[in-house]
Amino acid sequence: MLRLIRHTAVLITLLTLLGSNILLLTNSAFNAAISTALATTLGVRTVSSALSAKLAGSERRARALKSTQLKRSAAVRGFGKNLTARTRRVAARGIAAIPAESIPYIGAAVVVSSMVYELYEACETMRELDALYADLGVAQNVPADAMSTLCNPPPLEEMFANPLSQPDV
Predict the structure, then answer these.
(1) Which pLDDT tens digit goes with each residue over 34-92?
(2) Contact present, 129 and 105 (Cβ < 8 Å)
(3) Among 21, 24, 99, 121, whose Cα sits 20 to 30 Å from the Cα of 74?
């Protein structure tokens, strides 16, 4: 009788182990449950827990990447919208200034004021481009010399000074 109980226990154990092996290989929920139980009771890092952690990390990175891409797309769309509007304004004002530029004496003032306006708009475009580079995380910014030359030009006296007529110091 004792022998029968022992054989039955071995058979039940063998069938349980065989069934659990089959479930571990075919059922992901069972695999995760056993893996979690082993990890918590024995403190062992299982393959399933490592893959779950890796998957969670990659999902986190994917969400962060998507968020970054959405921010970059919005920055590019904003820049494109502003650039399109600015280009239309500059073109419309340039075309509207053509008749006034042909008037004697007044035309010269219109040409100068039109050029000043175009330089102002070009400076605004450079500033927005610099902001776009910053939003995109691009290391290359608008060159500082271009920004200073365009947006902060030197006084006219310095630009048109004749170096030959200045006294030696």
Answers:
(1) 888 887 888 777 777 777 777 777 778 888 888 888 888 888 888 899 999 999 999 99
(2) no
(3) 121
Beta carbons of 135 and 71 less than 8 angstroms apart: yes
Judge if 57 and 38 occupy the same domain.
no
Q: Which domain holds residue 33?
A: 1-44
Q: Say if residue 75 is in the same domain as residue 39.
A: no
Residue 59: phi and psi, rounded to 5, are: -65, -40
Measured from the Cβ of residue 111, the count of other Cβ atoms closer than 10 Å reads 13
Contacts of residue 30, Cβ cutoff 8 Å, sequence gap at least 6: 20, 23, 24
Examine residue 164 and state whether it is found in any structural domain, yes or no.
no
How many separate domains does the chain show? 2
